[in-house]
Design brief:
Blueprint lengths: L2 H7 L4 H20 L3 E2 L5 H13 L7 E4 L9 E4 L13 E7 L8 H10 L7 E7 L2 E7 H10 L2 E2 L2 E2 L1 E5 L11 E8 L4 H8 L4 H9 L3 E3 L2 E2 L12 E4 L3 E11 L5 E8 L1
Antiparallel strand pairs: 1-3, 2-3, 4-6, 4-9, 5-6, 7-8, 10-15, 11-12, 11-13, 13-14, 14-15
Length: about 260
């Protein structure tokens, strides 16, 4: 199956199609030149699609490693390695930077990302942006690290002092989640999504059918898809939650569930 046919089979269009085509190019580069090759940063959804594409191409997942700069990173690269190089011996192409500023400036993720975009830095060259009081740590590809160290000096009216740091010195904010206990009529995606997104089940079903809901980072348009503990559901504009526990039936025949809702 040629590259175009594989991309068609996954239903890829627009920007995702271009991004995933580049993933295959990197895999072929590593194999043909027998050297490491890495993709740009991928969103969780793009990463899942990339792994599906590699399987279609007959490329084993063991041929690459996922790296985000720290454990639990949301945005990650795929690094393809030749047979002679073990993952633990491969140098990561990710660099860690810290942008320091006055706490009273209270910069947000949007402020910092906007200033980077204003400098012409494209989103795929930047991994997670970890914002805290007085500083923000970011993961970037090595190709732009020096440029940012020399030129990224402000975000809006706030002055920045940018330095390189080691991965072990990253300030990783705690993930904020709230526990929600509820009962649902079944473990269908529309029923659980209605609970997690606090909406009517009919609205949840329509949202799913519109293609705006992802199950474990893959688009799911089937409201009757059954969920299992550990599944993650997200929807653009509505947030994300994980089905963490499934209990027994209540006296009214409903299923007890526990959700971890990201806030």
């Amino acid at each position: 199956m040629d590259k175009g046919a594989m991309l068609d089979r996954l239903g890829l269009t627009g920007e995702d199609r271009l991004t995933l085509a580049k993933v295959l190019d990197r895999a072929e580069q590593a194999e043909q030149r027998n050297i490491p090759a890495a993709t740009d940063f991928l969103s969780p959804q793009q990463r899942m699609l990339a792994l599906d594409l590699l399987r279609l191409a007959g490329i084993s997942e063991t041929a690459c490693v996922c790296r985000g700069g720290y454990e639990g990173a949301e945005r990650q690269i795929l690094q393809f390695l030749p047979d002679w190089l073990e993952p633990e011996n491969a140098e990561s192409p990710i660099r860690c930077l810290r942008a320091s500023y006055r706490e009273e400036d209270k910069l947000t993720h949007r402020d910092l990302l906007g200033s980077l975009m204003g400098m012409g830095v494209v989103r795929e060259k930047i991994g997670d942006l970890l914002v805290g009081p007085g500083s923000a740590d970011l993961l970037v590809l090595e190709g732009i690290a020096d440029y940012l160290l020399q030129n990224w000096s402000s975000a809006g009216r706030a002055r920045l002092h940018v330095t390189a740091i080691e991965p072990e010195n990253l300030h990783i904010p705690a993930v904020r989640r709230k526990e929600v206990r509820d009962t649902v009529s079944s473990l269908r995606l529309d029923a659980v999504a209605a609970s997690g997104f606090r909406m009517a089940r009919g609205k949840a079903a329509a949202l799913i059918e519109s293609g705006r809901v992802q199950l474990n980072w893959r688009e799911c348009v089937k409201p009757d898809k059954l969920l299992s503990p550990g599944d993650v559901v997200s929807a653009r504009g509505f947030g994300k939650f994980q089905l963490s526990e499934v209990g027994g039936l209540t006296r009214k025949g409903r299923v007890s569930i526990v959700l971890q809702v990201y806030v």
